[in-house]
Amino acid sequence: MQPNQLSTYPDPGFWTKTSLIQLGYGLWVNLSMVVIGLAFGFTAVAMPQLKESHIETTISDQSWIASVLTLSAPFGCIISGYSIDKVGRRIMLIVCHFPVALGWLYTGVATSAESLIVGRIIIGIGMGMALSVPRPYLTEISLPNMRGVIGSFPNLAMSVGITAQAALGSFFKWTTLCYISMFYSLALMGFNYFLPETPYYLLMNDTMERAEASLRKFRSSKHNIDAEMDELMDFKMDNDIHGLPWKEKFAALFKRSSCKPFFLMMTYFTITQLAGISVVIMWTVDMLERSKSSVDAHTGNFILGITRFLSGVFTSIIIFKMGRRPLALTSGTLQIEVSKKYIESILFFLYVATMFNPLIIIFFHPGLGVGVVFVFLGFFIHYTEKLTHIPLICYMAYITFATLGHYTLPVLIMFELYPLQVRGILGGISTSIMNFTIFGMNKFYPYMIDTFGFANTIIAFGVLSLIGNVFLYFYLPETKDLTLQEIEEYYNDRRPTLTSQRRIMSMHTLSKQVLSRNDTASKSLIKITDRHKKPKSDKSKTKVNTDKKDVATSISLSESDKHDK
Questions:
Q1: Residue-wise pLDDT tens digits, 436-450
Q2: How many CB atoms lie within 10 A of CB 248?
Q3: How much is the pTM?
Q4: 321-348: burial string, b at 16+ Cβ within 10 Å, e else
Q5: DSSP string spanning 159-228?
Q6: Which of 87, 439, 516, 546 is the most buried (most CB within 10 A)?
């Protein structure tokens, strides 16, 4: 972007028409993610019912029914990841629901454990397709300030699906749940037909005119469309953005801009799974029964579903103001000396306080919270014999902390970091690996508790979460308020630091306006102006490059000073 061009910084406020339009599309698209919640939540409700039904299931059958969903999902992820770059995000948001509906129908009419497993395989393929589309769609329609809010909706939508399945499971048999889920998927196939395509996909595969027409559908008439289109055109020209043939796309997967964020996110995925987040979703009823909880397991499952939903709403609100790193990591810790008499009140305080006061996160961040809660719960189960409701409170605290970090952030950050031209296929590969790790955790969970004991397994989840936070502290980037172009150019080595060029140019324009009105402007503003000035002459390439490095260093120091303060 040239200095004389208008900047889109700062982004519109939350209650402006542009932000509300993006919010509306975010809610619409995330109706597809409810499908995934329904699929995940089914096993927690169906497993206890199957034990009393005419269908005989062994421990092996039960583990397959619970875990095969995520074994087949990677195939759907790969199919969808390739297809969304080929035919578009909108088309795949329609198509992905067909295999899901077919799988629910097959599961509903199943008469044996084998039939149930086949039905779950079909659902898993459709679920994998649905998992790979909404997030890139939402990432590409959002301005930087709304990207975190809307990007957190998928987790919230899955929570709605899990909670709805838990609530319906209290009144209906598992076969009825299958038919309800099937009709929901069929309805979304027709509903998603009216969605527009994303401007970034059209930027890559179509004309700038169609990309602009698409962009206007996601912005209000008062938004500066011309400035945003100028940024997109600069991005397209500077990075040679176009639809890649298969050979070029395959080669692009091995570039630094793809490999570095890919390995970072795969490590993050692994950390979240070792912390037990998918196991808690899919084995909720079983875990409550083993945790010496005095609350009925099905009632507890519904309560945890509500907790997950409220935590998702809370996360969507605070992510508008807070960055990714403060949610996943914070340097502070909360040190508490507890006695058995006050354990219950402290846990409940942490749960409620975290729900209503974002500052609590500064002292007890999500990753640390997940680890500490499960370590405590494991020891509590070891040394307590009577039934109590403390385990349910522990699970509520666990889900609250996990929703703030482990549930929400990995996939949100993933589609922010991945380059546009391979975002679909790289996202498909990533979600495939994610589903394989989920499959492994849920497949071997029954064998883990048989071998090590339930309490020791819970303690292991907590310890592994604490260890994983060390890695995240050093390597997790901050992407809040950065455009997708700025993030991609950083990993392409076109930018020295992850700083907002829009913000810098806005400061430069503001300082020029102030200086033109008042010759006695503040020294701090003059310093800001001097830091970000363009070189006066480009006669010497060496001098220009040196000046650019000096500017980049100043910007980096300025950002560091800000964070230190």
A1: 888 788 778 888 888
A2: 12
A3: 0.66
A4: ebebbbbbbbeeeeeeeeeeeebeeebe
A5: HHHHHHHHHHHTTS-HHHHHHHHHHHHHHHHHHGGGPPPPHHHHHHHS-HHHHHHHHHHTS-TTS-HHHH
A6: 439
